[in-house]
User: What shape does this take?
Amino acid sequence: MPSVLPDGEPVPDDGSLPASALDGAGERPLAFYLHVPYCATRCGYCDFNTYTATELRGSGGVLASRDNYADTLADEVRLARKVLGDDPRPVRTVFVGGGTPTLLAAGDLVRMLDAVRQEFGLADDAEITTEANPESVDPTYLAELRAGGFNRISFGMQSARQHVLKVLDRTHTPGRPEACVAEARAAGFDHVNLDLIYGTPGESDDDWRASLGAAVGAGPDHVSAYALIVEEGTGLARRIRRGEVPMTDDDVHADRYLIADEMLGAAGFDWYEVSNWATSDAGRCLHNELYWRGADWWGAGPGAHSHVGGVRWWNVKHPGAYAAALAAGRSPGAGRELLTAEDRRVERVLLELRLREGVPLSLLHEAGLAAAGRALRDGLLEPEPYAAGRAVLTLRGRLLADAVVRDLVD
Assistant: This one.
């Protein structure tokens, strides 16, 4: 089941923010994340806030239904308009994630987007993305999304090998994600991403190379490649604990990452974040870049997290509780925290170090600067950007990014 929410102070019933949250808002982009919490089945590695029909049966009634979900989420978008008041910013990016957003009708996703458009307006060059399960879309569905304003789509591919997909409990067939890229291109999508996962128990180096080759051959302009993280409480964690499948170690993850960087680089993809590669600047996922750079975003939907001007909050997790709060005219927020200046500094270092542009050395304290000097000498930071006042990870540094950043935030 999904992981637990963090602790925090209560969110006011009307969702109001401290006046300081909108100080300087005009200098920050505004984004929306729209969470769709439904899945046809639960993948064994997943601990996201998602629910199958079986998990919802009897626990949410009509309030948890997929049928009226778009209208419920639109209610939160209208709440956001009230909370943000006369904030004039048009929305720069919208990202529909899940779960499996494409379990909803394409018209429902378009109506959710329309709620943002009507309440806030969209920037002229707004990036509008949805995640999609390869088996839950077809050319007609994709054409409807494109006509409704979506211009970027991300397909969950994970692997090209059937036995790897089986361990992950993925339901699509090998080859279907690649076909989806062609269908999305035909529908008019300029930007298409494929998500891959490496380090699945039973996956070999050759399996991973085959997955990368299939992804590149499909013709996306963006590839995300993530190491498998085995979260406690998931089906995969239980299988590993029972000895049914082996656990992959960090050395294997490192080898797979090097393979990915080599193959993607040879195919014309450049890394711009530790786990993300694109064929051009236009192909980069701007929505995620806004997260990494500390922009303002409103997360609508059960369990969604938001951040505006140093205030971070999160919604109740269950779709029934979420819908009931909005139906009663209350914010669905479950808790929030006000970030201190030091909190925000630390988060900038944690997130921006992962980017190709790196993080300004001026953000580091004395101990962090000393750690940066050691990282430079150890070949973990690039010398030229360092001389210009920025910490930028080398390839070896990307392999050890978590350890490097822990030292730099001291």
